[in-house]
Specification:
The complex is a heterodimer of chains A (about 775) and B (about 425). Chain A has about 775 residues and is of the alpha/beta class. Chain A is built from 23 helices and 32 strands. In chain B, helix 5 packs across helix 6, helix 9 crosses helix 10 and helix 15 runs antiparallel to helix 16. Helices cover about 45% and strands about 10% of the residues of chain B. Classes of the chains: A alpha/beta (about 775), B alpha/beta (about 425). Chains A and B meet through helix 2 of A and helix 14, helix 15 and helix 16 of B.
Chain lengths: ~775, ~425
């Protein structure tokens, strides 16, 4: 510890602190622009100049290390003179038109100008003007307002992993721009808006729609990925206008993904379902809640009475809240049905019988900092979990974490990847077995007896990459093995889980699941999964039920096989869909549409990947006749005259749902799973790799207009490595006909990040629904 | 050329720069002696300290002291960098050293590497003197072929690789940490200090950076002994120094003089004032050094301490001479333009302030000055000075402050009368090119 005196206050500061750190500890504010606690130090704005004893010149607090016995004055005449001088320089070329600037009222420059600026400008020369840049659909540029603090530049390089913004030119010609007219394509790009201390980078969807002081602020939780980023949702006249991060050092820190930040636009979508609707003789008409619920109750009761509860099935979105999932499973079980599931894109449910508890990350997010080696199995990590990827990236760059990967994809994660086994989906189980075998060799351990018998072929097939992965895991002390969404959705997911467990055991690693959605862990905790004799999500489609309850899921886009799901539901006697949005596929599949609230219009809870239950409250008034999902289910329970549906408030539902506690139920262990026959792709066909693109992944995000204009929302293509394209006689850019259970036409794209013999075609998009299952083989031919 | 020419000794004869010529002049003898006798680094540093050698790049930091800062025992690579990125208006000495005597620089660097335990060295050469870069590459090849560079130098177990690197002509890359950034392939912008290059330099490794002339002096110091070198100059200002004299003199060029030589002697060597005109002012150490009026500079000796006492800097020894035909406002406008253009744009006072200074001076020169402009210039220059990451801020403020200090009447005349004190016809005559 070092002792420093700032403005007469004596402070104990840890070794290595800067004067800025020490001042923050003492609650002393030093004005600054370029300094940001999460970014490297630039020391370039010079606003934080302070007077230091014995120093001939004022020194920047952000870059001056504390020395023992140092004495600092932040508001002395010398310091204030320096700060005022800098403020004057910052303002000479900055437009002095705060009333027309979108940042007005929340501008650091404006705020500090009150304290350090003059009443009039001494600058009488021409002001510099820069042309605005097109940074894409999310971030607006007002270049002349830029004060060159380079926070945005450092963010893209240090947090985003690629220097998408840079400061070009010299002197007062220096301006911030992208490389050769490109847009900001990072999935984290919106954070530069928060970082920009002035109005140079603002939110394109939000700008000029409200002033900061008109907005009400309420906390919420992101309904998208499994991290559950903490949000501040800002509303004006009860309409959500903007979403900002709520700082949570354990989860998202001060960052948000673009999806978390901009998906709110979908709340105003024209496709919002606002009134209960029923279809009679192919005609949809609006009805009252009373009529809709009476109809549903009597129809469900008569089907259950005549054909038994097992004739009913419930399929819920993993983005539904704990309260909704709990009441849904309670309602189904009350009707005598065990057919309930929320794992809609999963294919292999053999693990259910032998799983010890609810899958989770197996560690806290902050623990990623201390990891030595991390193996990621079957994940589009950067797009599936952008902020987890950011933690991994940070750790890889700053703390030497070795990242390795197994999967059919090798897209750029914008971080150093020490080893990567790029293998076809059909080879993933064998590759994990080979890693386990190599790891046993490296560590002198042995593969568990019940698995050793499956090793014969694998052990002989230890490639350089497999060896490198094993070595990386063997050399680290704190390791982790993560199963990504692709692994969970894999047709042999249970075996991948089993082998991942073996690898984790051999390397002393924590085993974890990244998790697909906001409530992927929560769904297990409230038992929204089939019980004894119940059907899982796949079986409910493959063995059609008479009636289905759909909660928040779109049949064509949210399932492992959208085409089959739509067809099955369309043939059912009764399909009730509770949804925030209307869609043609829903109308095709459903008989009753119930408008339920999206996350901003209902209280609820998500249990994130680290097993934290995060509750949130209503932040905006519901539109039309929209009702919170939990209330709808609770009242439906009453109409069905089921016991235990007498909750007074959402808290009592939550308490009931999570009554058995969370930590004790989190467990990634799996028992034995028999070896399945590896599906052999038919001759002349390619294995499908289906990713769920970040901006198509759930009903909310796929209706957010600005996100739909980003590069991440480009329509799916048929991506293949050059070798595979050549074997097919197809050139990149050609149109190809791809045939699965149905045929679609797509453009072929050369992509060396796809395993040979495979074709990567995104799921969750209307243009690829006809292909059918997310896994399996496809024929690709040139047209 | 003076009788004392050491570093510029190769200036006579087209092939005088070659290894054999340098060796014939006694070159590489110091290095051979050091390697044969395994001279301990401390002894060489002591010799440098005795010699009073001060950095020739502008700051005048004692070289022996700088070399002693390097952590000799640091495990792994340490770097040695020669700063030949001379971009300061008025300075043109390093190019002549590299043209006439490149092996003196190479030998000085090898000795430096020996002293500090450096494994790799770079000579960063200004981008606009490409033929000098090519010559230096040739000299390097000669040294490598002679076993003076590379692995096991002169059969010893001492190895040192030296490379030439050419910049692209940005003035700021002459600032040592901007030079390091540029050498690493990044945009040339100074780093904030601490950490200093001796602990965190090129690629984050301990690095020492010296000027070309500093390195070139080292073999001569070790050849004649620190005491003898010191005695060439005066206490704390040892040795010879190359002065690049330019402006309104008859024979502009590089002159190697003993430090402490009176200024009138240098002026006489340069052939005196053109057309017998009267000396008006001199910038004694490159364009960033404060200007001194004739009466002050004529009483000065040319050494670090005397020029500093007179209120300016010896800097890089670039002496810009101005006669009575010079309009000081116009001269300042040109200098301010330079600093405005060459500011790297990283930190606020320099980025915004240099442009402001230039625009106000330009306005005054064009007859649009306002009564409070001089106060404004003083205030803005004062707000830049000492507030920036690197010395460019001070360099930009210095000329403004000194021009106004010494020639306030000329500025006032400009503002009041909307025209120049020196009639345009006189200015035109003065700027005529003399062949």
């Amino acid at each position: 510890m070092l002792e420093i005196e700032i403005d007469g206050k004596t402070i104990q500061a840890p070794d290595g602190s800067t004067v800025m750190d020490a001042a923050a500890l003492a609650g002393i504010y030093i004005p600054h622009f370029c300094y940001h606690k999460k970014l490297s130090i630039a020391a370039s704005c010079r606003m934080c100049l302070v007077q230091v004893e014995k120093a001939p010149k004022p020194l920047p607090a952000c870059a001056t290390p504390v020395t023992n016995g140092m004495r600092v004055w932040t508001h002395s005449e010398t310091a204030v003179k320096a700060q005022k001088g800098v403020m004057e320089f910052l303002l000479i070329n900055h437009p002095l038109d705060c009333p027309v600037c979108d940042q007005g009222g929340e501008c650091q420059l404006q705020d500090l100008a009150v304290g350090y600026g003059g009443a009039h400008s001494r600058y009488r020369e021409e002001k510099r003007v820069w042309l605005n840049k097109d940074l894409g659909p999310l971030v607006a540029s007002d270049a002349s307002r830029c004060i060159n603090c380079t926070r945005c530049v450092r963010f893209t390089a240090e947090i985003g992993g690629l220097m998408e913004l840079g400061q070009a030119f010299r002197g007062d010609h220096a301006e911030i721009m992208t490389f050769m007219g490109r847009a900001l394509d990072s999935e984290l790009s919106g954070n530069v808006i928060d970082l920009c201390p002035v109005g140079a980078l603002t939110s394109k969807p939000f700008r000029f729609s409200a002033r900061t002081w008109e907005l009400s602020r309420r906390r919420s939780v992101s309904p998208h990925d499994s991290l559950g980023a903490n949000l501040i949702v800002q509303t004006k006249h009860d309409v959500v206008r903007r979403v900002l991060p709520f700082n949570n050092e354990r989860l998202n820190e001060c960052w948000l993904t673009d999806r978390d930040r901009f998906s709110y636009e979908a709340l105003a979508s024209e496709q919002r379902l606002t009134l209960p609707m029923m279809c009679e003789r192919d005609t949809w008409h609006t009805v009252s809640w009373q009529i809709a619920l009476e109809f549903i109750a009597s129809a469900l009761q008569s089907i259950a009475r005549e054909q038994g509860g097992q004739a009913l099935g419930a399929l819920a979105s993993p983005h539904a809240t704990v309260e909704e999932l709990h009441l849904l499973q309670k309602l189904m079980r009350g009707l005598g049905s065990e057919n309930i599931d929320f794992r809609l894109r999963q294919r292999d449910f053999r693990g259910d019988a032998v799983r010890a508890g609810a899958p989770w990350l197996g560690m806290s997010v902050v623990d990623i900092h201390d990891l030595h080696s991390l193996l990621v199995i079957g994940s589009f990590l950067r797009k599936d979990a952008p902020l987890l990827a950011q933690k991994v990236r940070h750790s890889a760059y700053r703390h030497g974490l070795q990242v390795s990967a197994v999967g059919p994809n090798a897209e750029d994660w914008r971080m150093p990847v020490a080893a990567r086994a790029l293998v076809a989906p059909s080879a993933m189980v064998a590759t994990l077995a080979a890693i386990a075998a190599a790891l046993a060799e490296e560590t002198g351990g042995a593969v568990t007896e019940r698995l050793a018998g499956r090793l014969s072929a694998a052990a002989a097939d230890i490639s350089g990459e497999v060896r490198a992965i094993a070595r990386s895991l063997a050399s680290g002390e704190k390791n982790a093995v993560w199963l990504g969404n692709f692994a969970v959705q894999h047709p042999r997911a249970a075996e991948l889980h089993l082998w991942a467990q073996e690898i984790a055991r051999l390397s002393g690693a924590a085993l974890g699941f990244i998790g697909e959605a906001a409530n992927s862990t929560g769904g297990y905790l409230v038992d929204a999964v089939p019980g004894e004799g119940g059907l899982d999500a796949r079986a409910m489609i493959e063995s059609p039920r008479r009636a289905y309850l759909l909660l928040g899921a779109e049949p064509d886009l949210d399932f492992a096989d959208g085409a089959a799901t739509v067809a099955t539901l369309a043939r059912a006697q009764l399909v009730v869909a509770a949804s925030a949005f209307d869609s043609p596929a829903l109308r095709q599949a459903a008989d009753v549409l119930l408008p339920i609230a999206p996350f901003t219009e209902t209280p609820g809870t998500f249990v994130n990947c680290i097993g934290e239950a995060q509750s949130f409250n209503t932040v905006a008034r519901s539109r039309g006749e929209v009702r919170p999902g939990w209330k709808v289910l609770r009242v439906l329970g009453n109409f069905l005259e089921l016991p235990g549906f007498d909750h007074e408030d959402v808290e009592s539902v939550r308490d009931e749902a999570l009554a058995s506690g969370i930590p004790a139920r989190l467990d990634n262990a799996i028992g034995d799973v028999p070896e399945a026959d590896a599906p052999v792709p038919r001759a002349g066909r390619l294995q499908r790799i289906a990713d769920v693109p970040i901006h198509f992944a759930d009903p909310l995000v796929r209706r957010a207009p600005s996100l739909q204009k980003t590069a991440d929302a480009a329509p799916p293509a048929a991506r293949m490595p050059a070798s595979t394209l050549a074997a097919l006689g197809v050139n990149a850019g050609d149109k190809v006909r791809v045939t699965g259970s149905g045929a679609v036409e797509l453009h072929a794209v050369a992509d060396e990040g796809v395993a040979p013999g495979c074709v990567r075609i995104a799921a969750a998009h209307a243009s690829t629904v006809a292909l059918g299952p997310m896994h399996g083989d496809l024929s690709v031919e040139r047209i | 050329m003076s009788a004392h020419a050491l570093i510029l000794a190769g200036a006579g004869g087209e092939r005088a720069w070659r290894l054999q010529d340098y060796a014939a002049r006694g070159g590489y003898a110091a290095l051979r002696r050091i390697i044969a006798g395994k001279t301990p680094p401390e002894a060489i540093i002591a010799e440098l300290k005795t010699s009073g050698l001060r950095g020739r790049g502008g700051a005048g930091f004692p070289t022996g002291l700088k070399w002693s800062f390097m952590p000799y025992a640091f495990p792994g690579d340490k770097y040695l960098v020669c700063n030949s990125d001379e971009g300061e208006p008025g300075t043109f000495k390093d190019r002549d050293i590299l043209r006439c005597n490149p092996h003196a620089v190479i030998e000085g660097m090898i000795i430096g590497a020996w002293v500090m335990g450096c494994t790799r060295g770079y000579n960063y050469i200004h981008g606009e003197i490409f033929e000098i870069y090519q010559r230096f590459e040739e000299a390097l090849e000669e040294a490598r072929a002679a076993g003076l560079l590379g692995r096991n130098i002169l059969g010893s177990d001492f190895s040192f690789e030296l490379f030439a690197h050419h910049g692209y002509g940005a003035y700021i890359c002459g600032e040592e940490t901007a030079l390091l950034e540029s050498l690493e392939g990044k945009k040339g912008q100074p780093r904030f200090k601490p950490p200093f290059p001796a602990s965190y330099g090129l690629y984050g490794k301990p690095t020492t950076i010296n000027n070309t002339e500093t390195f070139a002096s080292v073999p001569f110091i070790l050849g004649m002994g620190g005491e003898a070198f010191l005695n060439l100059g005066k206490p704390n200002n040892g040795g010879t120094k190359i002065f690049s004299i330019s402006g309104h003199v008859r024979h502009p060029g590089n002159y190697e003089l003993n430090l402490g030589t009176p200024f009138p002697e240098l002026l006489a060597m340069a052939g005196g004032m053109r057309a017998g005109r009267k000396l008006k002012a001199v910038i004694p150490g490159g364009s960033s050094a404060p200007v001194l009026p004739a009466n002050i500079i004529m009483d000065c000796t040319l050494d670090f301490d005397a020029i500093s006492k007179a209120g300016s800097m010896l800097g890089s020894g670039a002496v810009i001479v101005m006669d009575e035909t010079t309009c000081m406002v116009r001269a300042l406008e040109r200098l301010s333009y330079f600093y405005h253009e060459e500011s790297c744009g990283q930190c606020t006072p320099c980025r915004e302030g240099t442009g402001w200074l230039y625009r106000v001076v330009r306005r005054i020169e064009r007859g649009l000055g306002k009564p409070d402009d001089l106060d404004l210039l003083r205030s803005v220059a004062g707000n830049i000075s000492g507030r920036t990451i690197c010395a460019l801020g001070d360099a930009a403020a210095g000329p403004v402050q000194s021009f106004i200090k010494h020639f306030a009447d000329e500025f006032a005349y400009h503002i009041e009368n909307k025209k120049c004190l020196v009639p345009p016809l006189v200015q035109e005559a003065g700027s005529q090119i003399y062949m």
